[in-house]
Here is the input.
Amino acid sequence: MSIENILVVDDEPLIRELLEEILKKEGYSVNTVKNGLSALKKIKEHHFDLIITDVRMPDMDGITLLKKIRESSFSIPVIVITAYGSIENAVEVMKKGADDYITKPITPAQLKLTVQKISKQRNLLQENRYLRREIEQKYGYKELIGKSQAMREVYKMIDRAALSKSTVLISGETGTGKELVARAIHHRSSRRDKPFISVNCAALPKDLLESELFGHEKGSFTGAISKREGRFELADKGTLLLDEISATIPAFQAKLLRVLQEEEFERVGGNKTIKVDVRIIATTNKNLKKMVEKGEFREDLYYRLNVIPIHLPPLRKRKEDIPLLAQFFLKKYNHKNGGEVKEISKECFKIMEECLWPGNVRELENVIERAVVMNKEKTILPQNFALDISCSNERINLPENITIKEMEKKLIKETLQKMKGNRTKTAKTLGVSIRTIRNKIKEYQLW
Here is the structure.
């Protein structure tokens, strides 16, 4: 909400007239009063977007007025006028809660710039509040956004899971937002004020994962120069997220199963049994049930983890959520980068809806961020929209009746060829992690 109505408070008639004249020329509606008492009365009777007050005034000075405003329910920005060169006054008014200050003698340029600064801050605050409220109340939780039927089902499962202590298994392709779901469950649960600890099982060397989660005693292995608490201890009374649980080895899975069953463990190299109260949430981008059938994942652990299953659909299966996500990312990266891109053209939305989005929401976010950073216009147009080959059926010439797996293999192969075998560039182009690209190259025997 822009600043429209301003209250000027000063005991000198000439100063009041000067400020009123300058501000009215800028299009603001201005009221003036001669002291703090009159200002408080005026504030109770009328709505003001900004107050500009002198410090030294009879009856009630500007510092007292500022204090009264901050003690009340009025959340009005306040600019304080201080004597020229009085650093002590400036520091004091900022400590008392002033939003900014200007020094005498006041110049039109100084006044206009200060008011514009407050106006911009106010707009950003209002936009952030509105956006946060809109997302959390209407469509989801923070950056987990969507109004499609598929996402509505996910929200229902989040609410149900949050009421219990049972383990949750979140499945879905890379980039669908599995960690966001885990965080939403934690923050809506009775454990919200306790730790939320996340461990990426695929990113840690297999021989260090056990030490990372259970901790170790001093001297238990080479390099263990001191005792260390593991993630389970750190997450006590809270939630532990085991991201990409499918990447763990059978030996670790057996120890994890014991913790889930007994709620206790020993540190590596230790013999003291440690009791914990931890809510476990695991994620996977692979089909654990098929891994169990192939003997690649423990069946008993799978059933322990899969008490409350939540599946996140890929973006290509909930395309009605694309406009919401795109608008959210547009505002997010405008704020982050100080951009002024106001909208995305209808042509761009049409292109986005035709995309396959193998990198899912993460890929969409990357595309919007790039468009905001690179675009100098107010509107993102197709020519500004740097879509990669991953987004167009036509560009990669997909045959009819192709399966998702065949489509993914063809997409990665053609992108690798375009990037001359550079895996880092291929991952960046497709909006996925380098680890995902390495795994897919191995799976499809590419390059």
